[in-house]
Amino acid sequence: MSEHVGLRGNAWFQALTGQDEASKEDPASVLTAEVMIGDERALFLCVIPNPGSRFPCVRDGQVGLEEGYTLAHRVREALNADKDKPKSQKRPIIAIIDVKSQAYGRREETAGLFLAAAASSDAYASARMAGHPVISFVVGHALSGGFLTHGYQANRILALDDAGVTIHAMHKEAAAKITRRSVDDLERLGERILPMSYNVQDYAKLGLLRQLLHVESLIEPNQSEVDEAKNAIIAAIVDARKGPPDLGVRRQSPAAQKSRKAGIAARALMEHEWKKV
Amino acid sequence: MIETIEINVIPAFVNRGSFIELNGRERAQALFDKGSWRELVGPFDRIESPWLPMQGVAPQFDDGCIVIKGRITGKPAVAISLEGAFQGGSIGEVSGAKMVAALDLATIDSRDGKPTAAILLLETGGVRLQEANLGLAAIAEVIASILELRQYAPVITVIAGTVGCFGGMALAAGVSSYVVMTREARLGLNGPEVIEQESGKDEFDASDRALIWSIHGGEQRVGMGLADDLVEDSVDGIASAVQHFVTAGKPTQHRSEQVELYRRRIASLDASSQIDPLALREQWKGFNSKGRTR
Amino acid sequence: MEHIEFEYPNAQRRITNRAHVGVVGSGDMEVLFEPSERAGAHVSIATSVNGFRGAWQAVFDRFFSKFDGSVRIQVNDAGATPGSVLLRLEQAVEALGQ
Known about the structure:
Largest interface: A-B, 77 and 84 residues
Structural class of chain A: alpha/beta
CATH class of chain A: Alpha Beta
Low-confidence stretches of chain A: none
CATH topology of chain A: 2-enoyl-CoA Hydratase, Chain A, domain 1
Distance between the termini of chain A: 50 Å
Radius of gyration of chain B: 19 Å
Strand order of the largest sheet of chain B: 2-3-4-5-6-7-8
Oligomer: heterotrimer
Number of helices of chain A: 11
Radius of gyration of chain A: 18 Å
Number of helices of chain B: 10
Strand content of chain B: 5-15%
Mean pLDDT of chain A: 95
């Protein structure tokens, strides 16, 4: 598990927005900013570690109760503010992602963390369905419930092409323990079984990513990398606006047609049989 | 004409009408008006996981997801049922795709003037780790598709046990129009084992059954207002609850839209020590809450 | 993972129904019975437990000594015992109704 989890999110959020602190009304773990990208204002959101959180299980950057509902609140704020605007003027919503996972805590389960996650997912999806271009930029880790809560409802997903970037259903050490394998075994499995790989270049072969961006710097991006990222985000915004507001694009890329063959076949057969009942 | 027969393998003398004792297919079938239903993309179509055999794991012909289309109290409906006994009801590429496709087709029909409710029978631990990223991506798409359909017709999640509803699929329950649970059922983002593993035994003792049900169990979830209906484990009782919500149609507001209410509730949580579940039930009853709780 | 196939050319009786029984839980199996397009009966097994071809052969020999049907049988198995296998096959025949 990279010890840099959460630091990249903070660094990229600052590089893209010029800000590095949460609003006074929000917990310190949720950064939001309304700044220009290209020639329009966009809402940027990022979840970062808050070692001072009153919830012990989120202090390393896990997505917990406050994080889920704050994300939902901020996204719905933008949704409501733009609700009467034409589609071309609905502000883009950009999720910067470097999250360890969801919070693994008793308080969280007692107070219904699943609903906090659902509320955030709902808000992002509702914004997308209303016509906001929702773009996710994975700069570090995007794991399981954390990614479902913050970023996986986006129209388009971008990721840095780097060994420090992991998109997966469960971080390696936890997955190893729960499947009673060694981390080495898991990594070897990932070389044979594409969806199990921890390598972001393999993730790209699943057809879910719009683009992989190359970077040289480990944590702090240099100016040319920031400019390249901005251009990639702007292009993703334009592309998102051109297409329908659902997630169908994730099945349509050439990579998806190859890697998701069985799922695509199941869907086609379902469509065929549905009509006959 | 080829006739397909599924048999209920439970001998009559032990069949108390328990819903939990039925397998995923039987549970879905039990919800529909007699003679009104048909299974889609069933085991005879043999669309299996391509990934499991590569790892020496036996696949299932329906990949653990059963889709049944028909009528409930005369209204068009589709049931999507996860088989908890197969890989813990976990979501893989194919089972996820079947769920998403059925939801999307119900949405298309609903938009075309034929509102079609969806009933999700969720016995699942979430993502199938043997298919990791395809399972996770499928769950994101399930969430998206529920959000589309629930604008037009109710999406009713039923969690009966014994697997319960955990992992990413708990978000599917969270965005549903209604959630029906039995006492035996459990609902949560993280199960006790993974919390103990990640945060230690003091945080959550996974061997403490009373603790588990006091937090994740159906009675607690309904008491907290996080689920809508607590029903006895009986086929008639659960079918009846489903009929009720199919007839009720869309709720006035969805639970996952009530962000301000939940922000207030979380802001007033005392996180300095573990939270007493029963005390929290009482505390939240004091908040103004919209939507149904029985 | 093993794939095992058997042929029973003497199983001639025409079958027109189909049946599905079982769940691929740990220690369990599922089976499809369908009318065979070719003469005889054809069995194909996918099992996650290797090295038991002989046991499978014995179970199916015993099954076809009592059941005469030109069927295509397909099994997904996660470690069912021979007794459980026979039970599932008998349940499938009952479901078939032929």
